[in-house]
Amino acid sequence: MKLIRKTKAKMTIPQTSLPDIVFMLLFFFMSATTMRDYEGLNLVLPFAKQIEKLSSDVHVSTLWVSKEGMLSVDGKLIDINSIRTIFYEKRTADPQLTVSIRADAQVTMEMMHKVHKELRLADALKVNYSANRAI
Questions:
Q1: I want to staple 59 with a disulfide (CB 3.0 to 4.6 A). Which of 45, 83, 96, 105 is the partner?
Q2: Does 60 fall in a domain?
Q3: Is residue 33 one of the residues assigned to a domain?
Q4: CB 86 within 8 A of CB 78
């Protein structure tokens, strides 16, 4: 006697609702995800009696100096000895470069002197200081 083999039904995933599921997941992740804000150095800028705004941010590079002595250029933490090479390269690429120094009010003059010395050696002589307007 010969056994008759039953044919197995093929199980498939229905693909008609797949785009709906993909879009629901997309909307969920878009609404649940938060974008990371810029996490720079914590600074309390000194106050100034008179402030003049720069006309353009095109030829400006910002150097952040915290009271702990940490330095940041373009969002990257750097060592004080690398200021010379970084700003020399930036200065050769853009001769109209203005270095905007954003230093905490508690930064020591020794630290600022070291920063100025490195900028002088990099031939970045056009320097701007950022401050808050006094109330």
A1: 96
A2: yes
A3: no
A4: yes
Local structure of 129: helix, strand or coil: strand
Q: Per the structure block, which two tokens stand in for 8?
A: 């197995």
Backbone angles phi, psi at 93, to 5 degrees: -75, -35
- How far is Cα 83 from Cα 65, in angstroms, rounded to an integer? 12
Domain region containing 90: 47-133
pTM above 0.70, yes or no: no
Asked if residues 73 and 86 have their Cβ atoms less than 8 Å apart, the reply is yes
79 within some domain:
yes
Predicted confidence (pLDDT) per residue in 76-126, tens digit: 899 999 999 999 999 999 999 999 898 888 888 899 999 999 999 999 989
DSSP one-letter string for 22-66: HHHHHHHHHHH--PPPP------PPEES-----S-STTEEEEEE-
Q: What is the widest separation between alpha-carbon atoms in the chain?
A: 106
Q: How many helices (H) and strands (E) does the chain have?
A: 3, 7
